[in-house]
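Reopening this ticket.

The earlier resolution said the output was attached, but the attachment link was broken on my side. Pasting everything inline this time so it's all in one place.
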Amino acid sequence: MLIILAVLDLISAITLAFVYFGIIIKFLIVASAVYLIVKGLIFLGDPASIIDIIIALSLLVSLMITLPKVIILIFGIFLLQKALLSFVS
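Inline output:
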């Protein structure tokens, strides 16, 4: 189960990388956002889950406006490190 969540976090981080470079794939953005919201709601007591929900909302907002690249970069690094730490543990 942990590996599946790690892979999905990695896919979400890659989605943020696409957004960072201006590649907008709506289905991938919406799918990643839905995944992060559902996961965030399931593990709501964890502070990282609140950040997951914030990242999901920012992904959805990125469909309408261009977000500052620094925010996308920070969120992408956060998801990437979560995925990598999940793979290691």
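Reporter confirms the inline version is readable. The mean pLDDT is 96. The longest helix spans residues 69-88.
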